[in-house]
Design a protein that fits this description.
Homododecamer. With 142 residues, this protein is of the alpha/beta class. The protein contains five helices and five strands, in the order βααβαβαββα. β3, α4 and β4 form a beta-alpha-beta unit. The chain is globular and about 35 Å long. The structure holds 1,3,4-trihydroxy-5-OXO-cyclohexanecarboxylic acid.
Length: 142
């Protein structure tokens, strides 16, 4: 089964960026862990990160055309702003699991709204980077 992990803006700076909120592990190191986890779960994994909304949308369309069945998606700040990303998710048959490293509901009120959650299968928020592993495990059972 082919699945993807898609990360939005500023997540390339994990490990450097506000480590108290997002942890000290770098994006590159997380990618290595995700590949290992996917292998253990018997999943084939594609990874992508971008700071650009259009590039994320293009990747969603491309993955859908390439037969990706499920996507672990952290839209980062675009969660709270992007109708275009929400429409991109709704334009495919892929299963999306929305993941946030921090608990967005304990933070500023502008983070309490997610445009993408209503078109996702479920949302994991506040479990740190363990949320990605939990989402991969869920997808492997689908
Ligand atoms: C985030 C939460 C968002 O509010 C924020 O803009 C991010 C990261 C998280 O993983 O906790 O960039 O999606």
């Amino acid at each position: 089964k082919l699945v993807g992990i898609l990360n939005g803006p500023n997540l390339n700076r994990l490990g450097i960026r506000e480590p108290g909120l997002y942890g000290s592990q770098t994006y590159e190191s997380l990618c290595k862990d995700w590949k290992k986890t996917a292998h253990t779960l018997g999943l084939e994994l594609v990874l992508y990160q971008s700071n650009h909304e259009g590039a994320l949308i293009d990747t969603i369309h491309r993955w859908a055309d390439e037969g990706v069945e499920g996507v672990v998606f952290n839209p980062a700040a675009y969660t709270h702003t992007s109708v275009a990303l929400r429409d991109a998710l709704a334009s495919t048959d892929m299963v999306f699991i929305e993941v946030h490293i921090s608990n967005i509901y304990t933070r500023e009120s502008f983070r309490h709204t997610s445009y993408t959650a209503p078109v996702s299968r479920g949302v994991i928020s506040g479990l740190g980077t363990a949320g990605y592993t939990a989402a991969l495990t869920y997808l492997s059972g689908q």
